[in-house]
Amino acid sequence: MDRMPEDIPHPSLDEIRIERVLHALADPIRLHLVRELARLDTGVACGSIDLPITKSTRTHHLRTLREAGVVTIHPAGTSRITTLRRADLDTLYPGLLDGILNAPH
Amino acid sequence: MDRMPEDIPHPSLDEIRIERVLHALADPIRLHLVRELARLDTGVACGSIDLPITKSTRTHHLRTLREAGVVTIHPAGTSRITTLRRADLDTLYPGLLDGILNAPH
């Protein structure tokens, strides 16, 4: 029987905490990733968003976003697909994400 | 001629940056201060919000909030009045503050 190569944990809706979400979004690199995920409006392979950072730094930022409840990360073949938890965040904190995504600066 | 005992700097609207606002709000103590300021809906003397922290820690958190553009702090006699920059934040990031203040957890 096939098994997933790894089981990546994600916080459930009632485990997500506003302080952790805000901390995750307060970093310029992570905010850029979230803005790109929102713009693309689909799950994307980790490497497909262009960033001047190493792979390990990218992995660290994606883990911070995942653990805060901002994105899901799921294996797909040899890749991992990252998706913004837009509906979940809009349910928990109506207005928050739009307020951030539309920020002029 | 009277002079203000000190001139406390505040970022102007176009100096406020979303990353710094999010960082300022990502701390539980600072988030509590902001929630209380929003609930009271008026400027308050620094010490009037009850918190189990030292005066110097409180001062540190209030400075972080002020420098990010989240509150104003102005001397009034021997006290300092802290006020949430609600209108400014709602202008820059519509929905953001309400999304945070209404957060269930």
UniProtKB/TrEMBL annotation, chains A, B:
> Domain named HTH arsR-type: which ranges?
10-104
Q: Which Gene3D superfamilies match?
A: Winged helix-like DNA-binding domain superfamily/Winged helix DNA-binding domain
Extract the SMART domains matched here. Answer: HTH_ARSR
Chain segments annotated as coiled-coil in the UniProt record: none
User: Superkingdom, according to UniProt?
Assistant: Bacteria
| Name listed for the protein in its UniProt record | Transcriptional regulator, ArsR family
Instruction: Please spell out the taxonomic lineage of the organism that makes this protein.
Output: Bacteria, Bacillati, Actinomycetota, Actinomycetes, Pseudonocardiales
